[in-house]
């Protein structure tokens, strides 16, 4: 019964959080307070883990929260079940909604009004992606902690990361056939070897 | 059947190697979905991202659902979506069950710092590639620059940008058409 509640709580998060995984955060904080399934420390652990594992951040967070909640209830089996229920609940509303929207879109794809809307939307969407890229760059190239400690802007700049990023950018541009996964793996190895 | 299986596997591969959320998925989608398999065009991918940002839910899941629906309707959507979330669920389950303090393990931090540098380069190269199709004239340049800067420096939700630009874009094109018609009549 409580797993049904878990499903529907995440269903509502999925229904109302718009704009990507981190948009689920305020809803999760609220859920923790209302249900007592997890606390603020769990949430900050969850963000750290979600961001250092592959996959959509929202799904990672839901899985982690589902596990925490289920484990408290029924040990390991409960945890695994919760880890399955929560992300499925989170995904279900988007699946239904987008399915409906994309049916409509496919039908009106050739309408000139749809084309007119998308003419600007494509540029806006790319702008959002560029902004996300700048966000990652800020974290990757600049250490806010070091800056706060030393007050020295130049010391807080991570030159190793910038060099790696530039090299990979040249690699991607020159060798178009190489899969992005290869670059990610190379970067992980470089990060470990050179202690990034 | 084969296509459904492919959808699941390809999206699982994309989900398993996306670090840093839905936006970081873009380079992978371009490679697998647009270039290698031709399941969608560049334009369609951008449209899905645009809508995926203002519909509720995870962007990665929304984009997977769009591509799945286009290829095989409901079942396509289901398989693509399950594909993109499966690796996450398995990996997080393992970490949550067996590894405490995962995020503090030194080797993980180093690897992830390296990956972040790669993600910046990969997304940037995708943005450049896509800009040829999306940024076509002065108006789209202005939209792109304004949205990128405002979104980076303020806390305004992506939804606001998408909805505002949808109306602006419609209005601009209507005015354009009116002008063209007016010009012809003269």
Description:
The complex is a heterodimer of chains A (196) and B (186). Chain A has 196 residues and is an all-alpha fold. Chain A folds into 2 domains: 2-108, no CATH class; 112-193, no CATH class. Helices cover 82% and strands 0% of the residues of chain A. Chain A contains 9 helices and no strands. Chain A is globular and about 55 Å long. In chain A, 43% of the residues are buried. The mean pLDDT of chain A is 86. With 186 residues, chain B is an all-alpha fold. Chain B folds into 2 domains: 2-132, no CATH class; 135-186, no CATH class. In chain B, helix 1 packs across helix 4. The radius of gyration of chain B is 20 Å and the shape is globular. The chains are: A mainly alpha (196), B mainly alpha (186).
Shape of chain B: globular
Largest sheet: number of strands, sense, barrel closure of chain B: none
- First-last Cα distance of chain B: 58 Å
The domain tally of chain A reads 2
Mean pLDDT of chain A: 86
Helix tally of chain B equals 7
Number of domains of chain B: 2
